[in-house]
Every structure is written in structure tokens, then in C-alpha cells.
Automatic annotation (TrEMBL):
The lineage of its organism: Eukaryota, Metazoa, Chordata, Craniata, Vertebrata. The keyword DNA-binding applies. This is Basic leucine zipper ATF-like transcription factor 3. Residues 33-97 form the BZIP domain. It comes from the Eukaryota. Pfam families: bZIP_1. Residues 66-100 form a coiled coil. Residues 1-63 are annotated as: Disordered.
Length: 126
């Protein structure tokens, strides 16, 4: 046997055999066909179950996210209400103060100020 050449029948020799020399698959028996059909059906059912589980998981995640956003929205609406009330109170306090403020009543400090628009009306949600 010469060096560098594979021995006849070795793994390397068989792996480089011509494609036409490959063994043909044996015809399947009815039992093999039945087994194949059962295996495919079982796989199909498992795939359906997996997809359903994945969909349910995504639905639950969306539901949780929705609930969280609803709670945040409610909190923000309450905060808007509180801030609106605070703005009304402070605006009223400013109007009362302007009536008696010595700096505003002094003729030397008097500079005509045009009337301001209602600050509360511009801040309320529409």
C-alpha cells in the first residue's frame, strides 16, 4: 500500500464515492408509513399547542401593559385636577392681592397693564 492513498473500503474512500453509487432508500412498509403519519400528526398538534401558548402569553402581556397604562392615565388625570384647582386658587389670591398691593396702588409705580387672559382656561384639557 502506498503512502497518502486511502485503503480500499476506508471511510474516506466511501465518502468520496460517485453520487450514482449511493444506495437507494428502501421502500417503506405500511407500518413505517403509519408511524410517519402518526409522528406528523403528533408534531402538528404540538406545534398548534405551542403557537396557542405563545399567543396567550402575548395576550397576557398586552393586558398587563394596558392595565398599567390605565392606572397611569388615572393618576395623571387626578394630578391635572389638583393642579387646575391650585391654579384657580393662586389666580384668585393674586387678584385679591392686586386690589390692595401698595406697589400697584402707588401712582409713581403705576404703569398701565393690559388685562391678562384667564390662565386657567388656557391650561384645561379640551
Amino acid at each position: 500500500m502506498s503512502q497518502g492513498l486511502p485503503a480500499a473500503g476506508s471511510v474516506l474512500q466511501r465518502s468520496v464515492a460517485a453520487p450514482g453509487n449511493q444506495p437507494q432508500p428502501q421502500p417503506q412498509s405500511p407500518e413505517d408509513d403509519d408511524r410517519k403519519v402518526r409522528r406528523r400528526e403528533k408534531n402538528r398538534v404540538a406545534a398548534q399547542r405551542s403557537r396557542k401558548k405563545q399567543t396567550q402569553k402575548a395576550d397576557k402581556l398586552h393586558e398587563t401593559e394596558y392595565e398599567c397604562l390605565e392606572q397611569e392615565n388615572t393618576m395623571l388625570r387626578r394630578e391635572i385636577g389638583k393642579l387646575t384647582e391650585e391654579l384657580k386658587h393662586l389666580t384668585e389670591a393674586l387678584k385679591e392681592h392686586e386690589k390692595m398691593c401698595p406697589l400697584l396702588l402707588c401712582p409713581l409705580n403705576f404703569v398701565p397693564v393690559p388685562p391678562r387672559p384667564d390662565p386657567v382656561a388656557g391650561c384645561l384639557p379640551r
